[in-house]
């Protein structure tokens, strides 16, 4: 039996209710299943970890049936803010169209809200430029660690991204670390402490990826 309602309910209620409390657009998604990377999934979901052939960075994948969802994660400092970036690639090998919607991010139990982002400020409306963050100015995207093909945004549409049969979509999500400065440094490098939970919703299924800070890409900054 799939993990019905138990995991998905807790993930979605935590994420969406927190967004609503901050007057952020509420994403209403009724999810019936949830798959968590690295956990035993009796329903047949398979967890994989591979290396990006171009960057050598880790990609985590969850595959269930004809749907494959992969995740990459990076972090950087921009000004006084610690930014966390997550990229999801969804492969639709089914015969029907699917819809990918924003899930959410929690950092050591703290809900992290999505930033208002645009690819380039010069291409955005004037009223958006002041509050928006520019993806091409972030090291994670400017240096090619993460792709910027599409993105979830604080004020983006709620309907999500439609993926036709045998098509692929790549979407990124950027947020501030809600704990403020949380990077710990050692001889092995500097990484965010704790663990991040990032999720996306594909039709009625939540795909959850758990990223320890030490497993994330250090994009610089």
Averaged pLDDT, please?
81
Strand content: 35-45%
* Gross morphology: globular
Work out the count of structural domains. 1
Question: What is the share of helical residues?
Answer: 10-25%
* End-to-end CA span: 45 Å
Order of helices and strands: HEEEEEEEEHEHEEEEEEE
Total strands: 16
Parts with pLDDT < 50 across at least 5 consecutive residues: 1-31
Major sheet details: 6 strands, mixed
- Rg estimate, integer Å: 17 Å
Derived from helix and strand composition plus strand pairing, the structural class reads mainly beta
Total helical segments: 3
Description:
- By secondary structure, the chain is mainly β.
- The protein has one domain (6-218).
- The chain contains three helices and 16 strands.
- It has helices spanning 6-21, 126-129, 139-142, and strands spanning 33-36, 46-51, 58-64, 67-78, 81-92, 98-107, 110-112, 117-118, 133-134, 161-163, 167-176, 183-186, 189-192, 195-202, 205-212, 217-218.
- Strands 1, 6, 7, 10, 14 and 15 form a six-stranded mixed β-sheet that branches. Strands 2, 3, 4, 5, 11 and 16 form a six-stranded mixed β-sheet that branches. It has a two-stranded parallel sheet with strand order 8-9.
- β2 (46-51) and β3 (58-64) form a beta hairpin.
- The N and C termini lie far apart (45 Å).
């Amino acid at each position: 039996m799939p993990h019905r309602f138990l995991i998905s309910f807790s993930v979605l209620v935590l994420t969406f209710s927190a967004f609503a409390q901050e007057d952020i657009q509420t994403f209403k998604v009724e999810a019936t299943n949830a798959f968590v990377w690295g956990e035993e999934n009796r329903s047949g979901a398979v967890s994989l970890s591979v290396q990006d052939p171009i960057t050598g960075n880790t990609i985590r994948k969850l595959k269930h049936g004809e749907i494959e969802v992969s995740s990459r994660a990076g972090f950087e400092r921009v000004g006084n803010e610690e930014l966390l970036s997550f990229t999801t690639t969804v492969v639709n090998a089914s015969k029907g169209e699917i819809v990918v919607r924003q899930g959410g991010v929690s950092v050591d139990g703290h809900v992290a809200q999505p930033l208002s982002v645009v690819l380039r400020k010069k291409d955005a409306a004037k009223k958006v430029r002041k509050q928006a963050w520019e993806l091409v100015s972030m090291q994670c995207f400017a240096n090619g660690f993460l792709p910027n093909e599409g993105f979830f945004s604080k004020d983006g549409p709620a309907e999500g991204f439609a993926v036709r049969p045998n098509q692929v979509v790549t979407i990124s999500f950027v947020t501030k670390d809600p704990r403020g400065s949380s990077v710990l440094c050692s001889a092995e490098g500097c990484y965010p402490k704790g663990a991040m939970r990032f999720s996306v919703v594909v039709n009625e299924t939540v795909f959850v990826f758990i990223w320890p800070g030490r497993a994330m890409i250090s994009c610089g900054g």
